């Protein structure tokens, strides 16, 4: 049996969480995938998978072997691409994902410019305010805002984004001055659930971080709804700095408590290591990193 083919079956089974799912993804029967993994286990002399009726996970030996398999497969794919001449010319479908507002305003123009330079590449942009599994969903690259968990993905930092507080000039004129985070307790607030949790809003003070309980007048799951409500004068809201750049510039919103902002959130361009073998991904990463790092909203 082909070792490379067997390694692909093993890695796919781990990534998809089961033999049946791996078989569907690979276009093979579950029995064929089972035989491939059994062949590997015989080759290495150790059990690689813990099999249950619902899922399959790697054993301790399987975890160690998994990393080696990923490296071997990436090297093999790169060598194959080089031999076929595909690495020198970007081609095929490039799938990129990012947060809804940031993606529409900043990732989409970068992807458009990249596609203009590479007519043999077709773009696919998924704008989602949720974290997606790049490998499971066949995504080549993603913009992530916030701290990254440990993973096998490669991350290139492109900047950071502030978590800010804002309200409309009309709202501020009708309410007492807001000089300290604790002043928010007496004010109507518009809560955007993806920025803060339900326990309150976090701030930095000279004495250390604090969390101020708030009673939302309105809770929304989209930044644009929170921002529009704040512009209309219905309360104070906490969002990310890039989301209100236009409203600040046009004077429709005013920043509050800038001296109490929590630490900014890092922004990364991430991609699976194996994807970088493809010319389209390598070219896009090089192109996008330079342009995204130049954005004022990430400075």
TrEMBL record:
PROSITE patterns: HTH_LYSR (PS50931). InterPro entries: LysR-type_TF_proteobact-type, LysR_HTH_N, LysR_subst-bd, WH-like_DNA-bd_sf, WH_DNA-bd_sf. The keyword Phosphoprotein does not apply. One of its GO terms (molecular function) is DNA-binding transcription factor activity. Keywords: DNA-binding, Transcription, Transcription regulation. Gene3D superfamilies: 3.40.190.290, Winged helix-like DNA-binding domain superfamily/Winged helix DNA-binding domain. Residues 1-59 form the HTH lysR-type domain. One of its GO terms (biological process) is DNA-templated transcription. Belongs to the LysR transcriptional regulatory family. PANTHER family: HTH-TYPE TRANSCRIPTIONAL ACTIVATOR TTDR-RELATED, HTH-TYPE TRANSCRIPTIONAL REGULATOR. This is LysR family transcriptional regulator. It comes from Prosthecodimorpha hirschii.
């Amino acid at each position: 049996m082909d070792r490379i083919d067997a390694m692909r079956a093993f890695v796919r089974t781990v990534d998809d969480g089961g033999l049946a799912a791996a078989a569907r993804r690979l276009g093979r029967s579950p029995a064929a995938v089972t035989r491939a993994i059994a062949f590997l286990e015989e080759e290495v002399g150790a059990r690689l998978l813990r099999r249950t009726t619902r899922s399959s996970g790697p054993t301790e030996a399987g975890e160690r072997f998994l990393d080696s398999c990923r490296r071997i497969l990436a090297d093999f794919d790169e060598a194959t691409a080089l031999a076929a001449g595909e690495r020198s010319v970007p081609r095929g479908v490039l799938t990129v994902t990012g947060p809804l507002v940031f993606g529409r305003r900043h990732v989409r123009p970068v992807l458009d410019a990249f596609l203009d330079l590479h007519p043999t590449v077709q773009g696919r942009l998924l704008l989602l305010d949720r974290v997606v599994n790049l490998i499971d969903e066949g995504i080549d690259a993603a913009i992530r805002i916030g701290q990254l968990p440990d993973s096998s993905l490669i991350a290139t930092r492109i900047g950071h984004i502030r978590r800010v507080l804002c309200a409309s000039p009309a709202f501020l004129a009708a309410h007492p001055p807001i000089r300290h985070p604790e002043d928010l307790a007496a004010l109507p607030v518009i809560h955007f659930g993806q920025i803060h949790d339900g326990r309150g809003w976090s701030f930095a003070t000279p004495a250390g971080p604090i969390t101020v309980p708030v009673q939302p007048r309105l809770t929304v799951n989209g930044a644009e709804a929170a921002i529009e409500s704040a512009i209309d004068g219905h309360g104070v809201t906490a969002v990310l700095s890039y989301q209100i750049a236009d409203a600040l510039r046009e004077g429709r919103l005013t920043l509050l408590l800038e001296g109490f902002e929590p630490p900014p959130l890092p922004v990364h361009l991430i991609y699976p290591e194996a994807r970088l073998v493809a010319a389209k991904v390598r070219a896009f990463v090089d192109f996008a990193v330079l342009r995204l790092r130049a954005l004022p909203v990430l400075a």
